[in-house]
User: Fold these one by one.
Assistant:
Number 1:
Amino acid sequence: MPIKVLIVGYGNVGRMALQALRQAKDMELAGLASGSLSQTDKPPAELEGVSIKAAPEDFKGEADVAILCVPSRSVPEFAKRCLALGMNTVDSFDIHTDILDTKKRLDAAAKAAGRTAVLSAGWDPGSDSVVRALMMAMLPRGLSYTNFGPGMSMGHTVAVKAIEGVKNALSMTMPQGDGIHKRMVYVELEPGASLEDVAARIKADPYFVHDETHVIEVEDVAEVQDVGHGVHLVRQGSSGATHNQYVEFNMRINNPALTSQIMISCARACLRQEPGCYTMIEIPPVDYLPGDRDGWVKKLV
Amino acid sequence: MPIKVLIVGYGNVGRMALQALRQAKDMELAGLASGSLSQTDKPPAELEGVSIKAAPEDFKGEADVAILCVPSRSVPEFAKRCLALGMNTVDSFDIHTDILDTKKRLDAAAKAAGRTAVLSAGWDPGSDSVVRALMMAMLPRGLSYTNFGPGMSMGHTVAVKAIEGVKNALSMTMPQGDGIHKRMVYVELEPGASLEDVAARIKADPYFVHDETHVIEVEDVAEVQDVGHGVHLVRQGSSGATHNQYVEFNMRINNPALTSQIMISCARACLRQEPGCYTMIEIPPVDYLPGDRDGWVKKLV
């Protein structure tokens, strides 16, 4: 029986989750929950034949897993609603400081419903978290660094857009090594706004005040925007009493494509865990992969 | 209560497992099972105060986990004996083609004893296997390459030592990229042996016949030997329908130090799994780390 998947939300990640799901032979689409798309007469061409309704509640009994492609702030509410409907859930909640509290609340909701929630299933938090845990197991003492980019920071971009005088913006994260980042901020200005004033406001914002920040005016942000991203995770330290051990993980990726693929892989994993809420470091990696364990043990171990 | 660990075998890996265990605040040494050391009057200085007996059976009821630092060929027998004694086991069995069969046999033995066996817990198989599984979850379609070295290949070195005319040998694995390896073989010859003849025999051996192999005569193999090793895992492919995704994992490490550290980390994990036999891709990564999950979720996710 294929896994029946409901996609909730249809932004960048939702669109690519649909693509990833269509590549997964062990899954089928139950439908798309989207308030805005459920009201339009002309959904995008790729959604032809897809059942589009306003809310997860409209799919009660029709989905095994709900992939929550909604803003992080909305994740806890949607997760609780889907769990109560008897669906397992996967999200890519990325507010690092709230993960543990959110996990505790979703854990209670998941156990009450006898279902599983996979929390923060993207690449960071997500697959990077798994790599960091593995590196700690290999080199328990030492120093780790997570270097992001070059790539667009969603959080920083939203912060810039809220600043007076900014019409549109893009904040790029540029790795300077050892976990230090530079911010390259591209702005379209409102008529009459001064670049100097806007740059001063950006540099004084809590999101930017601690980092080297450069503000550059552009005519059209869309002309410089790209969803490519990367990370370089490094750990140097000791295994047992032996120093000079070095491990690193590096990637260059399309950001929403990887995020949504990881969510789809986690849709398998959530059906294989006991009820409760899990982050990716709490799940056996083989559970992300289709088919039976023995085949993967033979192929990967 | 600290985890009571028995070390079985005292070669390179056993010695470094003892060092790693002494760095682990949540563990204590139950003793060392070593046939040869149990018969000597002068064990090495670092073993002062350590209970040394001939066999695991001499430690019945005294250990939670047995770390099997014995040759791969002896692992299944020692694992079954230790499981029957009520100990959980960790090994770094590295005969890739026999892993699945060995897992099935140890799974039955572990379940019968109500204990857990962690199989093939080194760096390859082991942590590399976890990275490969994670990369598959991130990029389900594409090509993966495991590039080893530069570093000593135990298997190839043993094969050379068995060849006529060879007194001592070291076979180094040199990565050529894309999973292709070159073999650099350093040999001490028996008196009267010809380098030309020995080189021809090595190159005709099944271990070497498919790889570019160079044979170099040295006066003393000990002068060129080093336990440094490395790996470069690469996967290029697609997430969903999006191509050009690239991930890589790279390390430079002291080989027995990393192997033994991973075994010690797995000693924690085996106490946290249901009875049965597991490879590392089947274990939640957080289970390798000391202390409670919440702290690691907060720190790593």
Number 2:
Amino acid sequence: MLVRNAAGRQVETTFGEVTMKPFSGARKYGFDSKLTTLEKALKHCGLKNGMTVSFHHQLRNGDFVVNQTLAAIKELGVKDIRLAQTALFTVHQPVIEYIKEGVVSRIEGSLNDSVGDYVSKHPLNSPVILRSHGGRWAAVKTGELAVDIAIIAASAADEHGNCTGVVGDSAFGPISYSQVDAMKAAHVIVVTDTIVEYPCQPQEIQERHVDYVAQVDQIGDPKMIVTGSLKITDDAEKLNIARQCVDLMDAAGLIENGMVFQSGAGGISLAAVKYLAERLEEKNVVASCATGGLTKFIIDIYRAGRVKKIYYSQVFDTESIQFIQHDLGLPADIGHYADPTSKGRTADSLDAVVLGATEVDVDFNVNVNTHSDGRLLHGIGGHQDTAAASYLTIITTPIFRKTNPIVRESVTTITTPGAVVDAIVTNRGIAINPLRKDLLKKIAGSIDFVPIETLKDMAYEATGGPASPNLGDDIIGIIKWFDGTVLDIVRRVQEDNI
Amino acid sequence: MLVRNAAGRQVETTFGEVTMKPFSGARKYGFDSKLTTLEKALKHCGLKNGMTVSFHHQLRNGDFVVNQTLAAIKELGVKDIRLAQTALFTVHQPVIEYIKEGVVSRIEGSLNDSVGDYVSKHPLNSPVILRSHGGRWAAVKTGELAVDIAIIAASAADEHGNCTGVVGDSAFGPISYSQVDAMKAAHVIVVTDTIVEYPCQPQEIQERHVDYVAQVDQIGDPKMIVTGSLKITDDAEKLNIARQCVDLMDAAGLIENGMVFQSGAGGISLAAVKYLAERLEEKNVVASCATGGLTKFIIDIYRAGRVKKIYYSQVFDTESIQFIQHDLGLPADIGHYADPTSKGRTADSLDAVVLGATEVDVDFNVNVNTHSDGRLLHGIGGHQDTAAASYLTIITTPIFRKTNPIVRESVTTITTPGAVVDAIVTNRGIAINPLRKDLLKKIAGSIDFVPIETLKDMAYEATGGPASPNLGDDIIGIIKWFDGTVLDIVRRVQEDNI
């Protein structure tokens, strides 16, 4: 049908089965500052009872943003919020009060420490849902976890909403968890204490996704956001475990030119990086890249020419912050790193990863979520993602802690199933998953290992065996595998047991 | 309901109204090379008759990828392809043969030059649909333009599919048009002549979106991809027009600290950048950023400390390629630059932009698509996007070319409606859109201007007025406004007129 449009033209609007609208007028676009207060931003986003509000955890135990936001939500008289943070820390203890007051009634995300302890004993209306980094990204991407308002803490932002975690007094490293929230949430608020001249550089989150920029006095305590200087343990037993991890990688033929390894900031993991650095030198090997978290120790390897590229999703210490301020390199957001619904993840290239555990069992199942008393005190993090992705997934642990056997018949909670766990390296020996016949063949003759049952027996002998946690029937938590299925459930801890 | 899952756990799967699937098993992920040939990649992607295949145009007139892909499609015996390229150039003349053979039957995208001439005279089954850069991004994003297979030319890629246009023999600048294709297309093929060690750095497109990496001998002719050294015109009339543009910006109060300006590579636009650089020096002004296309001239301004940041979506000359290889700075993909469905675009910050025209009319409507004989020879590019975004949108043109009046009663085709066009700067005077009373007030007394009708009268006097194009009834093209509406239609050119 020919119609006269707003430009005065006679235009056809029907083409076969396709109908198009005629031009209805043009206007000038422009820019209005998005700068406001946190409270106003929440109001303008239409905050109301029952909404889902998301956060990233990159300010770690220095974060002020979750608490400030919940205070503003309470001030606005809104209740029944579903928290969708990537993780909580000790600093988030006030969340317990918001739960008691009904401001927060549901949680999907890690709740380390005190909030975890509380929720373990006081079930919320629905169980807390825990996902791995990659699993959470996928859940937000697919709409399984629909976010109404994404709160994105930034150490610097411009008035348009372009923002970063790389510069500013509270720098924490590139924002890497929030891109999917920015794309998928109905509303997006950037929270910052540092407004920079347009355009903010670098900019991990861009204005195209941002509704408001909320300026606050301080987003966090810089001393608690990154560690000034990470130290490698001097515990001889831990150092020995770390060294055996590197021996195992070497025996498996992985310490070769082009190697890809994961780095973390945990005690044994950090020590393993140090020993790996020495082994790269000894063997005159150049790795192709390190992935995961950036630390001074990785930078040392890079500067020594022993790793060509650094792919990082987190930054852990001051030296690394300074390093990326000078050269951003290859930051990888969590979707790039671990989204299981994607066509390829950086984690999939891993040759070796060293991970921890609160418990392991004779089926090589690993628990990192609950303690043996049943309390849900830790998140999944990248444990599942990297374990399933790495050619050699090593779990390090002592066989017992105090009177508690860590290697046991059955873990209290499964975080990562034994099917993707390859080796358990302990203070009393190494066990190799019998499913990995290829690995067993490679290391035969160069690495001593024992059946995992032997490690369990030693642990039981030393401790008298595991105590039974005192659990109720209520389900307080759901552990999801990163494909969205229910891997395990966590039941209420009866208070009189504690 | 409690069920026993694949990890041997009794888990609940129903929580209120939410049902979840029980864990069904874990497997190791890993990496298989995505490297293959272009033909095999197309086959593996399930190429079939009627599919939509997209391309970016950043290899410009040096591009071999569109022609190679169509040759492979023909070889596979597939027909009726809808081309969804961002633009075609002279090098793509073979597309005419593919149209004649039925390999290509529909086109959504710019078809500059010979293909445009052909289609103007030989309608395809459906009209060609032309969109601005931002409009195309939005159409792919919203699904209005659904892409089956995205072909992404890269000057370097790794076997995982991470890729770039910044390094390699055929470097063309950061890939900036294809992110939305990568995210939305059902299948994605990266085409490159340079395989680099994993991980490719930088990486504008990441493995998470890529199905196959097709290695070809050469993606293009480097000499035709970027210009060795751009030269500023020495045509006195053009230089005079460029200088008047800068005078107009200055009179409008825009040449102040914090200014944001758009840079291009067209003759007058380039000269305007040169004069703007001089004016910044004279007035001791520091702009906050330049957006658009990067050239040596912008880099000179940056090095002189007269612009703080460079936001660029394209790279035009060898010096700029070398510059970004050293420091990537702030590349802006086309969605960031101009997606009209986003919450903020870099273009919206523009204080001033200088654009061209094939015709302008007394309502300040601008044509950049057709010549006055009706032939559809040019794309929209960023014309609409920047015109609607910039505070001061200047169109530069001579009032006539040879015997053809450029300033006229009515443009042959509307590309950008007069509502967003502020000034016409010509070799015979300046006209200001009477709708812009604010602008008129600012420049009164410092800039001489005339009614646009005066410019038209002069053009008609010199040429005897416009000739009527000899057009048929068939609609061969649709010009969309960036919001998806029909701004104008283009009718068939009768061959005997040419």
Number 3:
Amino acid sequence: MCHVCVINNVKSSMLSRRDFFRKSAAAGIAATAAGAVSARPALATATGKVVDLTHTFDGDFPTFDGKPGILYTENVNFDQSGYQIWELTIFEHSGTHIDAPLHFSKDGTSVAELDPQNLICPLCIIDIKAKAAEDPNAMVEPEDIEAFVSANGEIPEGACVAMNSGWQDKIGEAGYRNDADGNFTFPGFSKAATDSLMEMGVASIGVDTLSLDPGNSADFAVHTSWLPSGRFGIENLANLDALPATGATLFVGAPKHRDGTGGPARIMAMV
Amino acid sequence: MCHVCVINNVKSSMLSRRDFFRKSAAAGIAATAAGAVSARPALATATGKVVDLTHTFDGDFPTFDGKPGILYTENVNFDQSGYQIWELTIFEHSGTHIDAPLHFSKDGTSVAELDPQNLICPLCIIDIKAKAAEDPNAMVEPEDIEAFVSANGEIPEGACVAMNSGWQDKIGEAGYRNDADGNFTFPGFSKAATDSLMEMGVASIGVDTLSLDPGNSADFAVHTSWLPSGRFGIENLANLDALPATGATLFVGAPKHRDGTGGPARIMAMV
């Protein structure tokens, strides 16, 4: 068949993405029924909505140490060359980003070595907005996990468990990071909670704040236990309010630079 | 119920990820049957295997301009502080990375502004390994698209179409970038091919080489037409041999720094 004929045929009979995925979904169910699902299934049928959980990142985005997390230097100029490239200076733990085990363990797993099978996983969201509104250093505690399980069922092995403290509404305000006296002030996980999640086989945790530990933490108890265990974390998540407590599939677009302790990442979810 | 009871109950009755996704898949099919699928479905049932299409990236990874694409400077030292952070200098178009429209259009869409609905999409892989073995500047041509469609069916709207030229086997060799005389030498897309893909509603293209255009291109015809049209590209893809020609779902973990012309990305697929 000639080129033009084929192209016209393609255009006239083009499958929509809906048709494509509907057919794939049916094929997937057939595979499930036949017991052909692999040992580490990681994605289910999705209705197709992508929710971006990543903040746009620039030198004004709040950071833990208060310094700009990214700096831009012109590398190639458009007017001179017809294209353009930035040279970026990036401090790894800036923006919506990953904490790899290597961040808090001298010889731990780097961000490039994370098991890809854990980078696409079920997402469970624990909402502590009510208590965070009362206590800006509120923590996800074991009783919040109990309540979540009672309401939503068990947390799947390999899942990511994210805290929704409502803190993303403070982006652009000093209160995202500090109280009126300049003390670190934001919600996080308690070590008792992350110890429980470890026992459940959870692979990663995420927060909508600057740190896995709450702002008033004196010992970084979650960082110093969760990360050295070989698990990873995600900080500065966005848009968790757009997702259900359970049922979404998380995509962790972790960077893959060798020996990285973490880095700005693209985090998305499917619902 | 007490905390310990709940945790033990969770542990004893924990759903495997397989069970979780099997249930979700069934729910998804029900939604499809009820016509509840959204206008932009983007994921189908998956058997659960994640294939990482991203090369590990360091200063030795080949770049178009031959200079290191990433440099590391110690920001926080583990022995001094109990944790560690790198300061990274990254040239945007290095490693497995995105070309956003802004790379080749002065006021085009930045990498942070790409529509997230196009970052999770069907992946179609056109294999030109045989002709690339004969001609190291071989191109995906319209007839390769015709042959792909004849063998695999129509290319879904919104898909990513990737070239598999077998070039990843040359990583670590001078031949990934140059011929014996030092000329740029690697396969890519022809503009006639990408013009056809544009008409089909394809949203992105990917290559397992340093550039969307072949090494001997004199005019960067694909870069200067595809990117300014508002579409994006992915360069230096890995592991395409591990995927079927069609049926995989691509996850494009594009970075999200403001005004970015592109950048190192985490690319994965589900099969």
Number 4:
Amino acid sequence: AKMIRKFPCLVSRTFCNVGREDPRRMIHALKVGVSLTLVSLLYLLEPLFHGVGQNAIWAVMTVVVVLEFTVGATLCKGFNRGLGTILAGSLAFFIDFIANESNHVFRAIFIASAVFLIGTSATYIRFIPYIKKNYDYGVVIFLLTFNLITVSSYRVHSVLRIAQERFYTIAIGCAICLFVTLFVFPNWSGEDLHNSTVSKLEGLAKSIEACVNEYFSDSSSEIREDKWSDDPIYKAVLDSKSADETLASYASWEPRKSRYCKFPWKQYVKVGVALRHFGYTVVALHGCLRTEIQVNFGFTIIVTPKAVRALFKDPCICLAAEVSKALKELANSVRNRRLCSPSILSDHLHQALQDLDTALKSQPRLFLNPTTDQKHNHAPPPHPSSLLALAAAAVASKGGQKPPTTTTTTTNNSNNNSDNVAMPRTKTDTSALLEWKSKKDNKEGGERRMLRPQLSKIAITSLEFAEALPFAAFASLLVETVARLDLVIEEVEELGRIAHFKEFRPGDEVV
Amino acid sequence: AKMIRKFPCLVSRTFCNVGREDPRRMIHALKVGVSLTLVSLLYLLEPLFHGVGQNAIWAVMTVVVVLEFTVGATLCKGFNRGLGTILAGSLAFFIDFIANESNHVFRAIFIASAVFLIGTSATYIRFIPYIKKNYDYGVVIFLLTFNLITVSSYRVHSVLRIAQERFYTIAIGCAICLFVTLFVFPNWSGEDLHNSTVSKLEGLAKSIEACVNEYFSDSSSEIREDKWSDDPIYKAVLDSKSADETLASYASWEPRKSRYCKFPWKQYVKVGVALRHFGYTVVALHGCLRTEIQVNFGFTIIVTPKAVRALFKDPCICLAAEVSKALKELANSVRNRRLCSPSILSDHLHQALQDLDTALKSQPRLFLNPTTDQKHNHAPPPHPSSLLALAAAAVASKGGQKPPTTTTTTTNNSNNNSDNVAMPRTKTDTSALLEWKSKKDNKEGGERRMLRPQLSKIAITSLEFAEALPFAAFASLLVETVARLDLVIEEVEELGRIAHFKEFRPGDEVV
């Protein structure tokens, strides 16, 4: 009973939402209503009816079938309907001309076999991808009209008149549709494609920033249960292929709108492809978020320690911010139909990438130390100490390259740390390093000995390769994101070139 | 001129290919031809024509429009057409009944406003997603029929007869369509969905194996230029969303085929979603292939040295083979409609994952050693030595856990190596380790000193973290692939449960 009472409420809410989401839908519905009424007048008003005749009803049918939401779709359908009717009419007339010569029975057989042949081949032709994409509706109308005229011609003996009348009324219907769609609040497929490109760019910008921020946020421990918790923003990008292609194919029917050129719908499709590829990387990046928490098939949970993440937090977030900024700038550029700000797109991004690169380069080297594994079994867990040391070392490598500086910083950091294994060693090493300093001139021979103390300190800064794996994947994907972004930028710039976007002026708003 | 001569050849080849790709298309075309001929007989044969009358032409139209490639699509369209006609007929009859009471002018106004109102609201309703998905065609037919009958009723005064005749002829047309589609070589959407699921599983199995093999192949130096060189196999998976959903919605119209239950089209859609998610990871994995070669934005090329890859080659290839095997087993299971072999799905896969895990765990730890950078500037390039040492250590960690064993193995391996830096140290360390052995009891105090020699040896096995990054990403994604595979397995098992697949018997062929 509750369900029943709720139902009308739900229906009315759905009903209203459809209009609120896109007010053009309401307008389109009114347009259809008006056109239908107009075309009905052909039949209802006495003088018009006498001009057109009984077949006025075909005009009504044409309006119902042809008038679509966007200009491109209407033009495409109208053209298909017109072409299909003309071709079918001609063919039917030709067949009627041949069949007319013969007697009644032979005529029936002839018509039936013509229907069979044309029906079979037209249906077969519809499977050809090129025809299916562009002229599917036209072939259906062709078949429909052909059968209608050919079959009727058996009993009605004024086929030419039928064909003519049908053609006229369809032409009237198409004319009304064209007028309404082109001049009364027109909706352009090209415009839709343009806007969807902008919103995809913005959506990706948002989701990549959110993704990286979430990765480095401290609250990452809250396990998210939903399996397919992918961000709907980029989900829309991934599944945009067929919608994009439909819009583009309709847009290709629309008349030129700018002074310069035809609407570059092909380039928009290319941008869409580049964006989808970008999106795949974002999905993988998003996957890292979950890998951190749950993955490894439930039998080995490898989580990169937070301290390691913290080490790379700034360059990563900075890079993500730059990527996001670049995407927003691209979105703005497309939205305002102007070329992109060259500085945003390359300088900052390169700078951020360089920073991350430096951070990664200055980072831990990989060593093998099979013994430490056993050692730590009866020692306190190795992570806190090792990671702080790592962090310290990272700071050190920025501050200066000389070992003494490194050691000092390490000591400072170790003091903040309550670890009881790391502390004594660091102190011992300081003295060892002083020894190293005094022996600095002794190059080749001394190297072996002088390396030893330095390394023993680093022994405790060990981290399992497997532990670093998820982060490495994250960083690597982030870098790949930039590479994919490069392709997106390329395609958008090409779009700007083809569509003759206006020049970028320094005064233009920059994100 | 050459183009012109080539054109007919191209056309005929395209024409033939369409039929060769899927012979059912040829059959479908013939089916349409036969049905059209049958329905034309209604008009052509004298006795039938007298029964049905002039409106026989509507039956022809119905066949052209309703007869679709698969059973589900035909049923869906036929139902929509029938429902739309009935509703529109009733409504038109009701309106005609009201309008009949009044005079001529008022009637015209009444009809026009009814057309406007119904036209507007029907068009608006088409935007509601639920309606758009299931009943779009029905609403169009409703609008068409309603307008046809209402407008005609103004001049023709036997509306009830028009409506009736139209209904009968449409029913005849639908009946012919149903008969042909259901009993003459039927094509089931559910079958298509089933087969596309199988081929997607197989395609992914192939592409993941190819991807991993290519990664570890020695010929990876051949740079592939094509930007979007994604494997078409999994590309098909990624873009399968709309096709899947269309097939599923048609499949939902098809009558039950198995003894137990309705066709579980919803579950197939879920499997499709899981496969797409799996596909995203494969794309990312494929991206690693390219990262290795060209990425990092053109300004820093980081390539994981081949030797490092070789180190993990076997477990990775093994894991990929197991993933591929599992996918093939799933494909076989779905194809033969039997439950999956439980051993393939878990045991081997887990074993392979465990192996990779062990390989990764036994592998280099991360250390920071800022000094080595400067050192190696005037030393021979660090890679060959370090990597052999790495490999040696890996073997060592498998062979035995005790430091002396490790050293021996390392020495053995170093002998195969022409490196002049690694050799002397290893020897020195052997003596150092003997010293370590004697001091073994001295736990807390001695640990510091005894670690030192061991580590100094490993100093030369250094590898930049950044260098390992691409491989880490690759390995991490491979592991994630397994996690995604788990979800695919889950969904396929659920599918098996819902669709009552037959039990797995040990005798069943196993991939």
